Amino acid sequence: MNPQTFQSLISWFDRFAIGYADAAGALHPMLQLKLDHSRRVAEDCRAIATELGWPEDGRRLAEIIGLLHDAGRFPQFAQYRTFFDPSSLNHGECGYETVLASKALDGCSPSEAAIILDSIRYHNRRHIPDTLAAGSLPFLKLIRDTDKLDIILVVNDTLRQGRHKEYPEILLNIDLEGPPNPDLVREIRDTRSGSYEGVKTLADMSLMRLSWVYDINYAPSFRRLAERRLMEDICHVLPDTPDIRAIISSARQHIEQTLKG
Fold this sequence. Notes:
By secondary structure, the protein is mainly alpha-helical. α2 packs antiparallel against α3 (56-68). 65% of the residues lie in helices and 0% in strands. It folds into two domains: 3-143, Hypothetical protein af1432, CATH 1.10.3210; 174-260, no CATH class.
């Protein structure tokens, strides 16, 4: 991606986001949360792409993907007042359709546009599609990594600062005190993955985030997971049971083994 296209897309996203502001020019706190999230993810995309030795045009492309990956969150919240996909829409598909229809990618080469659109469309899927174009795969893996890292950070900070009391939507209105769903515990224990349909409580959400360590792709992403101590806050809210201890131990071993190379 050349510098001109890169700057054009940054400007487009800024205009796109502010288009959802109120008459005073302020975004709803939930949309401001997503705007801030998108900017941090974009920074991580560029930084990790740099550490991976990607060329500058690839770093620009990675950064733009980070910025645009949650474009669908803005129309989703404007229409449904929620970020919960099962009760509204698939925000990856919505982002894909929104960016495609905007013509914002007209200045990109066909291959760049395809990579951006694939990365937006599939960043939130449980699994990467087998039919994904080879050129899109490294970028999709990167945005899936960086998105997870920042979501973990946001949830941890939300709980620490008590923001969920003012905006319970941040945690999808889940039960903060309830026990883990036994079916979800078994699913994660047996498959190292979980279904969002089983998330009913904060403990369930924490287990889901814990299972994400098995779906992180790049070594620099694992280093950030460790350096930011993201696991500690997740584990802190989980009950002390044999099954939970086994899940935590397995996740920690996976991280340690990956970091050792």
